């Protein structure tokens, strides 16, 4: 199975750390964040991968060229950011009409991707994608999901005060080939995946909760916490 990793962000909240290094290359326990993603995907036999770039792209290119994953990674430079859905739509052909992963690669994630893939294969009939979720200690700062008894999404609560629960959307998805066809025909103008695409499929999104480390490292405080986890 192939994967698209969205790694083009500026990492503005992490400055000055990201003044000279893109967020996808910030080190966690001595390993670049992007390298952690690629290693765990490779362990689950996911690949090849397409990695999007924008900010300091030459550094990402140099990193990939000298990494163990150079033969499994295609870089996609965006002169102008297309948005999470826009980038996906422009690169749908990369999936070759098969199920594929869409990953917001700016979090620190140690999930078991083999289990995630297996959950997707066993998803309830009618579900077009599988979303990775995690328990958060700061639900008001996350996109919280409501589930039915079959772990299918029945509601979203995006960064609201006192949301109904603490199960958050990890922004890691397995998209079915059927969904990719729908996106190609009906969502050509979409820019944001979480606000313009996901709400249209409530009731058809299966979820997989990881109990492994999953952290937003968008602030200096959370970044330092990741180093100690």
Layout: helices, strands, pairs:
Elements: E1 2-6, E2 27-28, E3 31-32, H1 33-43, E4 49-53, H2 57-65, E5 73-77, H3 84-90, E6 100-104, E7 107-109, H4 113-121, E8 129-135, E9 143-147, E10 153-158, E11 167-175, H5 177-186, H6 193-197, E12 205-209, E13 214-216, H7 220-228
Parallel strand pairs: 1-4, 1-6, 4-5, 8-12
Antiparallel strand pairs: 2-3, 6-11, 7-13, 8-11, 9-10
Please explain how this structure is put together:
By secondary structure, this protein is an alpha/beta fold. Helix content is 26%, strand content 27%. The longest helix is centred in the first third of the chain and has 11 residues, at 33-43. It is globular, with a radius of gyration of 17 Å.
Q: So what's the overall shape?
A: globular
The residue-averaged pLDDT reads: 94
Count of DSSP-assigned helices:
7
User: What is the correct CATH architecture?
Assistant: Alpha-Beta Complex
H and E string: EEEHEHEHEEHEEEEHHEEH
CATH topology: Spore Coat Polysaccharide Biosynthesis Protein SpsA, Chain A
Low-confidence stretches: none
Q: What integer value in Å does the Rg equal?
A: 17 Å
Strand order of the largest sheet: 5-4-1-6-11-8-12
Number of strands: 13
Top-tier CATH class: Alpha Beta
Largest sheet: 7 strands, mixed
What kind of oligomer do you see? single chain
Mind telling me the CATH superfamily name?
Spore Coat Polysaccharide Biosynthesis Protein SpsA, Chain A
Range of helix content:
25-40%
Summarize the structure.
The protein is an alpha/beta fold and 229 residues long. The protein is built from 7 helices and 13 strands. The strands form 4 sheets. Strands 5-4-1-6-11-8-12 form a 7-stranded mixed β-sheet, sandwiched between helices. A two-stranded antiparallel sheet has the order 2-3.
